[in-house]
């Protein structure tokens, strides 16, 4: 699929391809597709129009890896960082950071916490002033994820996550991310909430409904989000998604000049209607 790159982004694409401007390094990041049943729905956030990356787009919870996410002090249950690294083609330290970032960012951006008092238990409720204080402290980097889990006597439950995809932002972008996508079920008893921050709206939507709204121009979806939602349409229930046998292949859209016009080539992303210019992130 070729997406037109008009105006300034098109000129930047030409400059990058010609070597006139440097390529910005991609930062490690994690995104989690939170799912619930009856019918199958995904949790989406609309990024504020003032954001430097993907402004106004509907995205899944996620964000950059904090250096402290790779801390060995993070209490852990489930598949090890080494096992996750094998799945995503990453070294053990990077994989540890990715999984921790996935759980931390999901809590920060939705209030959903994939952790519990033990390896077979999970927090039933994350509402209340004390939870909100901890969430805000995590966002402000006043509290590390390891400290947060320790003070609450919790362990990260990596077994509640499943790997889904790997997208890297095109080299033409000024902000770039090397993003691993995970999927997870909304834990029993927990509920999402509008937590503010980088988002100005949140919603649960069936994947097909989100795609229909994008096609109608009602919402904007980045290519990775569009592609993921398209894949989710193949499933009828959360359990089906979690049981899917995924082989993770890295996808990195690239710019090219076609008939004198700059376009973004997005491999294996389907009919990308109603999406933004960038091809990496959420």
TrEMBL record:
Sorted UniProt keywords: Hydrolase, Magnesium, Manganese, Metal-binding
GO molecular function: hydrolase activity
Taxonomic placement: Bacteria, Bacillati, Actinomycetota, Actinomycetes, Streptosporangiales
Lineage top rank: taxon: Bacteria
Keyword Metal-binding: yes
Signal peptide positions (record): none
Domain called Nudix hydrolase: residue spans: 25-227
Protein name, entry field: NUDIX hydrolase
UniProt cofactor(s): Mn(2+); Mg(2+)
Organism this protein belongs to: Microtetraspora malaysiensis
């Amino acid at each position: 699929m070729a997406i037109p790159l008009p105006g300034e982004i098109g000129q930047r694409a030409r400059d990058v391809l010609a070597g006139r401007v440097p390529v910005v390094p991609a930062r490690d990041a994690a995104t989690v597709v939170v799912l619930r049943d009856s019918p199958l729905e995904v949790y989406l956030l609309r990024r504020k129009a003032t954001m430097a990356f993907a402004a106004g787009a509907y995205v899944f919870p996620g964000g950059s890896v904090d250096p402290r996410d790779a801390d060995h002090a993070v209490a852990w249950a489930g598949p090890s960082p080494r096992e996750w690294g094998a799945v995503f083609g990453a070294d053990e330290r990077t994989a540890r950071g990715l999984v921790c970032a996935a759980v931390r960012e999901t809590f920060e951006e939705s209030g959903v916490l994939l952790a519990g008092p033990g390896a077979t238990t999970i927090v039933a409720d994350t509402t209340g002033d004390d939870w909100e204080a901890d969430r805000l402290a995590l966002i402000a980097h006043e509290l590390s994820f390891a400290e947060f889990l320790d003070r609450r006597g919790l362990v990260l439950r990596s077994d509640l996550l499943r790997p889904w995809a790997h997208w890297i932002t095109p080299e033409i972008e000024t902000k770039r991310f090397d993003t691993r996508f995970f999927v997870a079920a909304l834990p029993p008893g927990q509920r999402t909430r509008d937590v503010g921050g980088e988002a100005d709206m949140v919603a649960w939507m069936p994947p097909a409904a989100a795609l229909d709204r994008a096609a109608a121009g009602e919402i904007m979806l980045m290519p990775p989000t569009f592609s993921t939602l398209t894949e989710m349409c193949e499933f009828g229930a959360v359990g089906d998604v979690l049981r899917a046998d995924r082989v993770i292949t890295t996808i990195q859209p690239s710019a090219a000049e076609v008939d004198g016009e700059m376009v973004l080539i997005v491999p294996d992303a389907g009919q990308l209607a109603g999406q933004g210019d960038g091809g990496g992130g959420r």
